[in-house]
């Protein structure tokens, strides 16, 4: 049986620190009309990706959610994924 240190269980992967893409590049803006940027931040099922997946900060994640919802309301983006059988 392997002995553990008092620090707790060993971790296999080290999470690299992520930087918000909108904080890093001030030229990028969050706009509901720019659907190309917003589509990358939505899952294929139509749900908004969480912060831990995208790496955005809390401030920009709130702005993203607002822009995505506004874009859906203006019919620029779908509410759900389209599945054809």
Helix-strand blueprint:
Layout lengths: L20 H4 L10 H5 L11 H4 L3 H16 L12
> What is the subunit arrangement here?
single chain
Largest sheet: none
Q: What's the total number of strands?
A: 0
Order of helices and strands: HHHH
In the CATH hierarchy, the architecture of the domain at 21-73 is: Irregular
Can you identify the CATH superfamily of the domain at 21-73? Ribosomal protein S18
Q: Provide mean pLDDT, rounded.
A: 86
Percentage of helical residues? 25-40%
CATH fold-level topology of the domain at 21-73: 30s Ribosomal Protein S18
- Would you tell me the structural class of the helices and strands? mainly alpha
Short description:
The chain has 85 residues and is an all-alpha fold.
Explain what this protein looks like in three dimensions:
This protein is mainly α. 34% of the residues lie in helices and 0% in strands. It has a domain of 53 residues: Ribosomal protein S18 (30s Ribosomal Protein S18, Irregular), CATH 4.10.640. The protein is built from four helices and no strands.
